[in-house]
Every structure is written in structure tokens, then in C-alpha cells.
Amino acid sequence: PYLEARCPKLELVSFQSCAGVTDAAVERLARCPLLRSVNFAYCGSLTEAATVMHAYPTASQRRAAKKRVKR
Length: 71
What we know:
Strand order of the largest sheet: 1-2
Largest sheet: 2 strands, parallel
Shape: globular
């Protein structure tokens, strides 16, 4: 719970050209409830599974998105 606890309001992040980004990092990012945009362009160390995992929002992200729309 490190990342989601330390950055609970994280909405946008770019890792463009960051060779050190791992599938495990993507898994942790997927737990951030407000996250809606991530740039993984040219991150050669990621597998296709990691990018697919991030493409589908978690239940908490869907709830947060609904709250943003209601405001």
C-alpha cells in the first residue's frame, strides 16, 4: 500500500522513456483510486500484461471517477 497511501490524490503521471519502470510498479499504480492518466511511452521494460492491467480501472478508480463527474 506504499504508493497509494503516500499519493492518494495522484491523477496524472508520466514515465515516458523511463527504462526502470516495472510491471510491479504498474500494479501499484493501478491501486491509486484517482489515477486517470499514465504515460508509459518508450518504457521498454514493461510487458504487454502490465499495460493491459493498467488499461482497465479498478472498482475504486471507477467510484472516484463517478464522484468527479457529480461535482
